[in-house]
Amino acid sequence: MFLMYLHFFTGSLSAAILDFRYYWGWLIFYFIFKSNPVSSKTLVKTLVLLSVMTLLEAFLVNTIMTTAMLPNFIDTTNDGGANLALFGVYQRPFSFGGIAPVGGALLVVLMALCNVRGRYFWLATLAVLSLASGTGAVVLMLLLLAKYKRRFIMIMFAPLIFLIPWLLWFHKEFIIFSGMLFEKVNLKYLLFMAHLFWTHVGIAVGKITTYSLLFGAIPGGKGVSGHGGDWGLLTFVLTNGFFGLFLLLMMVFSRINKWNRLPIFLLLLSSLHYSAMSTLPGQMIFGLLLSIDKKGLHDDVEYSCKTMSAEAVS
Fold this sequence. Notes:
mainly alpha, two-stranded antiparallel ribbon
């Protein structure tokens, strides 16, 4: 609220409200979930519903529908060319997150929170992969390494047994396929993102002042050109300053515990690129994560998820 007052006196009320909604809206959901705890069973059902919705959208936009027909499609002048993957062959779904990287990251965060297993695990994993997002793929691999080591080994290495004979005969086709598969997770793309980051930093340094360094600058002002885009954390610092970053980290470290530690880490990490925390679904999930105390979720997350996992396996 302190930063909102500062931005109000240095800019306009509408800009200050927009800044609060975009970067601090999760505070509203934090207080809501703090007063009205959500059960882990409800969260698992939510994860299943979101996964099914994502897979259904992926099927529809690659068969009988175009993305321009979707209610969350913004640019109606083209058919979502920027949202294509696999060399333009596959149309990525926008999903509940609005864009594929956000939807993929939030699905993984919910997977980490619920500790899902069995068919729910595979359903959510398939939904993440259907988004063809580099951000989603990276946080999914981190989750697999942290919680599902056996599944990680099976997913990453078991297919090699069947692929090796195929590679001996069709090595050229494999090169093309691997390029399609790792289109968003490769050295060339990472170098491009690094160049883009330092370009943004260079532009910001040329406009920065002592005040904006400490307290940020409202979008449209001297320090920041607008909300959103690549490198969400950088935009957060430019808008809210290092004081705003300090407040955010202080809130996180004061609320972190064994139940929400991994999900919060994955959410913050994924927000380095596209700021998942600044979307409405992301703010709901972030507020929920911070509302979880040391006792865990309303009906004990580990017990409930193990119960549902047993049902899934049986």
